[in-house]
Design goal:
Elements lengths: L1 H20 L6 H5 L10 E2 L5 H16 L3 E8 L1 H4 L2 H13 L8 E3 L14 E5 L4 E4 L14 E5 L5 E6 L8 E9 L8 E4 L2 E3 L3 E3 L4 E10 L1 E5 L8 E9 L4 E8 L5 H6 L4 H8 L3 E5 L12 H18 L4 E5 L5 E5 L2 E4 L2 H16 L2 E3 L1 H5 L5 H6 L12 H24 L8
Parallel strand pairs: 2-15, 2-16, 16-17, 17-20
Antiparallel strand pairs: 1-20, 3-14, 4-7, 5-6, 6-14, 7-13, 8-12, 8-14, 9-10, 9-13, 11-12, 18-19
């Protein structure tokens, strides 16, 4: 018993040191950007929340012992599709805590479609520009899944090459799952890796999954969609997996997407979610819901709860973090913009959702400085001229701030309640 106690103390000590070293935002930020409310950089929730406690206990154990897996999913609109914010959080976690790199998770080759931007941490090349379908379309012509986006091939020469493009992190992919379907029912994709063709090791037409397994780690591969005349294949997602312990963060984003776009227009949302099976979902949906002339908070909450119910159907113990809408502006006339006060209404809904789901709020609106603060972020080159989006520097700073709030919760449960940890 004494030996177990000493071992626990040592592990706690090591984890506390790891967490202390993991802080990536310092006091210089407040001097450089005095308009940022660093005091608000925290996850706000009931510390007795069983779901949040369980998640951070599990996360702390994975970080300290390098055993087990934590799956995180970040879902939203253009803030997420750009990939900068999600990847900053991902790299902060994986580079500050060594030895915990698991799956790269769900990705999508966005730039295969016309005028569609791609995250920088993986490079996409293509034979041609494929037909694009997004959940923001009024009536999507293709059946969509978790990613909320699809590309369709109609030609035998169509291929998509994906190359992981993050030198600091090696994800060691040994299993690739392509999500998609052939409306004609007679097209099966294959993969080229190191000049060798690989056929699917398993096909499940019900879940629309084509699985490929490899004996060596894959970091660059080509998806071939061999469609003959009058054939087609629609790709709706790519999942990169391995058997390693650690933390995985999948980012799901579609430019312009609102809550109803994910629930109402993605019939395979829940089926695809079973592949990710998140322990934590970071919600970043809402900026587009609140962008119009009117904003119905009742409908907004109901749409969110429908998405949450779909997630609970996959993992009833999933924890939730709601990122409030950032401060933004609406154009009301030529060269005239006003701060969007709907952000305040949406903020109230996020706090209510967190309370109803035993989740947490990361109050981005408060951190930015409140209503009208985007002007200061833009003047500091942290916000873009549209007064809605951030620059790369802005997204990276937000990723650092979120990571700090995240790490502080691991510290809280390890430092204040060590008996809650079971090593």
């Amino acid at each position: 018993m004494e030996r177990i106690y000493k071992t626990t103390i040592v592990v706690l000590f090591l984890l506390l040191n790891l967490v202390a070293k993991a802080q990536v935002v310092n006091d210089d930020i407040s001097e450089k950007y005095p308009f940022i409310n660093l005091a608000a950089d925290t996850l706000i929730y009931d510390k007795n929340s069983p779901k949040m406690k369980a998640f951070f206990k599990k996360c702390g154990a994975v970080v300290s012992l390098k055993r087990g897996n934590v799956n995180i999913m970040h879902i939203g609109g253009s803030h997420v599709q750009a990939g900068i914010l999600s990847h900053r959080i991902r790299t902060n976690i994986l580079t500050n805590f060594s030895g915990i790199t698991a799956d790269r998770g769900m990705i999508f080759p966005y730039s295969v479609g016309a005028k569609s931007n791609n995250p920088a941490d993986y490079k996409v090349q293509k034979s041609n520009t494929l037909q694009l379908t997004r959940n923001v379309y009024k009536e999507p012509q293709k059946l969509l899944g978790l990613c909320g986006i699809a590309v369709t091939a109609y030609d035998s020469t169509e291929w998509i090459k994906i190359t992981l493009n993050e030198p600091r992190i090696s994800f060691g992919t040994t299993q690739i799952t392509l999500l998609g379907y052939s409306e004609t029912g007679d097209v099966a994709p294959y993969i080229i890796f190191q000049d060798k063709e690989y056929l699917p090791t398993r096909i499940n037409l019900q879940t629309r999954r084509y699985e490929f397994r490899f004996h060596t780690a894959v970091d660059s591969f080509t998806i071939v969609l061999p469609c003959k005349e009058e054939q087609s294949f629609t790709l709706t997602g790519v999942y990169l997996a391995n058997r390693k312990s650690g933390v995985s963060l999948s980012s799901i984003g579609v430019n312009g997407a609102a809550t109803y776009d994910y629930h109402d227009k993605c019939p395979f949302f829940t089926k695809d979610l079973r592949l990710v099976r998140p322990d934590l979902v970071i919600f970043g949906i809402g900026i587009n819901d609140a962008a119009g002339k009117t904003f119905d908070t009742v409908v907004f909450r109901k749409n969110y709860m429908r998405i949450i119910d779909s997630i609970k159907a996959v993992n009833p113990d999933c924890a939730f973090v709601f990122i409030t809408n950032n401060d933004s502006y609406k154009r009301v006339a030529r060269r005239k913009y006003v701060a969007n006060s709907h952000a305040l209404l949406a903020r109230d809904v996020f706090y209510r959702l967190a309370k109803e789901t035993d989740g947490a709020v990361w109050d981005l609106f408060d951190i930015m400085g409140g209503l009208g603060s985007m002007t200061k972020w833009r003047d500091a080159k942290l916000g873009q001229s549209d007064r809605i989006h951030f620059t790369a520097a802005g997204y990276n700073l937000l990723g650092d701030l979120f990571f700090n709030a995240f790490v502080n919760e691991i510290r809280y449960y390890d430092d204040e309640q060590p008996d809650n940890f079971h090593f």
